[in-house]
């Protein structure tokens, strides 16, 4: 019986190539193809895949948030993150979301099919070199609220818009941003966003 797969990847060409690649395997079947993170849970509930292959950078909601929600709503569906983000901080976030696998897009094609089979069998699959690098990486110095404010700033929102979104006073938002810049030893807000992204502390 084939392993049923849900594939979430926002780049059409990459998604098509992955579907074709997985289709070469007799024991794997892609039953759903998506390009948005906020479609994953509903699609999974409808088609009941065994494994969800999820990119991190998805519109709607990011792949790690979607994977965490999927685990809550459909725990029997295992999740395999397939991403170009090889930063230790991002892997740390993925482990926090309790994903079953984490594979980089530059891995040999054969590794994807093998990773899917291992994840479906209940194993956890993580690139060993990337896993080792996590041990030497510091946790984020930012609080959950500071991260949320910085994430919205990274999306291009101004302090007033962030304040409206989070139901805070604009002055409070500016204080959060100042604290973030100080904590990250950044030159300014843009530099803080860059530092946090490179460390994998922002979705």
Overview of this protein structure:
With 203 residues, the protein is of the alpha/beta class. The protein has two domains: 3-134, 3-Layer(aba) Sandwich (Rossmann fold), CATH 3.40.50.2300; 144-198, Winged helix-like DNA-binding domain superfamily/Winged helix DNA-binding domain (Arc Repressor Mutant, subunit A, Orthogonal Bundle), CATH 1.10.10.10. 50% of the residues lie in helices and 14% in strands. The chain has ten helices and six strands; from the N terminus they run E-H-E-H-E-H-E-H-E-H-E-H-H-H-H-H. The protein has helices at residues 12-23, 40-47, 63-73, 88-96, 109-120, 128-134, 144-154, 159-166, 170-183, 189-198, and strands at 3-8, 28-34, 51-54, 78-83, 101-104, 125-126. A six-stranded parallel beta sheet has the order 2-1-3-4-5-6, sandwiched between helices. Helix 2 packs parallel to helix 3 (63-73) and helix 4 (88-96) crosses helix 6 (128-134). The longest helix is centred in the last third of the chain and has 14 residues, at 170-183. The chain starts with a strand and ends in a 5-residue tail after the last helix.
């Amino acid at each position: 019986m084939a392993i049923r797969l849900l594939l979430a990847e926002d780049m059409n060409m990459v998604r098509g190539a992955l579907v074709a690649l997985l289709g070469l395997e007799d024991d794997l079947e892609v039953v759903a193809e998506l390009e948005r993170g906020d479609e994953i849970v509903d699609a999974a509930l409808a088609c009941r895949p065994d494994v969800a292959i999820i990119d991190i950078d998805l519109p709607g909601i990011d792949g790690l948030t979607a994977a965490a929600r999927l685990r809550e709503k459909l725990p029997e569906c295992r999740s395999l993150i397939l991403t170009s983000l090889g930063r230790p901080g991002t892997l740390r976030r993925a482990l926090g979301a309790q994903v079953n696998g984490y594979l980089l897009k530059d891995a040999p094609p054969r590794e994807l099919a093998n990773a899917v089979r291992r994840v479906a069998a209940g194993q956890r699959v993580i690139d060993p070199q990337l896993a080792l690098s996590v041990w030497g990486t510091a946790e984020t110095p930012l609080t959950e609220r500071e991260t949320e404010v910085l994430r919205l700033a990274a999306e291009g929102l101004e302090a007033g818009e962030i304040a409206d979104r989070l139901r805070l006073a604009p002055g409070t938002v500016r204080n959060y941003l100042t604290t973030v810049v100080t904590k990250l030893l950044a030159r300014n807000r843009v530099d803080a966003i860059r530092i946090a992204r490179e460390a994998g502390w922002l979705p």
